[in-house]
Amino acid sequence: MKKRVLSIVFNFILAAAVLGAWLYMVFHAAGGLVLTAAGFANLKYFTILSNLLAGTAAILYAIRLLRGKTPRWIELLKYSGAVSVGLTFLVVMVFLGPLYGYGSMFRGANLLFHLLIPLAAMAEFAFFLPFRPMRFSESLLATVPMLLYGFGYLGNILINGRGEWPNTNDWYSFTYWGMGVALLIFAVIILATWGIALLLRLANRKAR
Questions:
Q1: Of 32, 63, 85, 110, which residue is most buried, by most CB within 10 angstroms?
Q2: What pLDDT score was predicted for residue 32?
């Protein structure tokens, strides 16, 4: 009972942190900062979408916990959210941080989006969620949000062109070295996302 209450409180706090940080960026995005956009234009970033997914999963999970047992689709949503923000964290640490500087990556609301929320969501899934362990096939489903975003991101560049800063369609600079390298980066990201899914699944199973 105590663990259930703690899980409900944690997930409400996690959802509130996501919503608060996102609204802050919507209304207070500072011009000139790296990887920020005024208003709802910030929805173009995987960082924002992955955190909103994790936040949505958290609030749905908390509400269903209040009512009793959680359905499997919400548990899978929690898994997908943790994997997605895990990818955000990984990309920031190994790619965007060295490219743009970690100071920019952890400034303002991005401290929550790039670091604190991803770590909290992954830790919760890996060590504290009590529902039935994820099947191997479900680790593949957890990569779907990234796949949808990746195909949309590269498809937009192929259709509309890369463009020039600040109106570029390649705001992550993946095509800076050419489309071939961008496709290679996308392939690596697919494998990395699945790797995160498998590691979180393994940690969750070992923690029981």
A1: 85
A2: 47
Confidence (pLDDT) at 35: 58
* 159, two tokens: 């259709």
CB-based contact 25:48 (threshold 8 Å): yes
Give the separation between CA 200 and CA 208, rounded to whole angstroms: 13
Structure tokens at 32: 């000139």
DSSP code per residue over the chain: -HHHHHHHHHHHHHHHHHHHHHHHHHHHPPTT-TT--SGGGGGGSHHHHHHHHHHHHHHHHHHHHHHSSPPHHHHHHHHHHHHHHHHHHHHIIIIIHHHH-HHHHTSTTHHIIIIIHHHHHHHHHHHT--SPPPPHHHHHHTTHHHHHHHHHHHHHHHHH----TTS-S-TT-TTTT-HHHHHHHHHHHHHHHHHHHHHHHHHHHHT-
Residues in the chain: 208
The reported pTM is 0.92
pLDDT at 49: 97
Q: What stretches in the chain show pLDDT beneath 70? A: 1, 29-38
Residue ranges of the domains in the chain? 2-206
Using alpha carbons, select from 67, 57, 72 the residue that is nearest to residue 4.
67
Please tell me the predicted confidence (pLDDT) of residue 174: 85
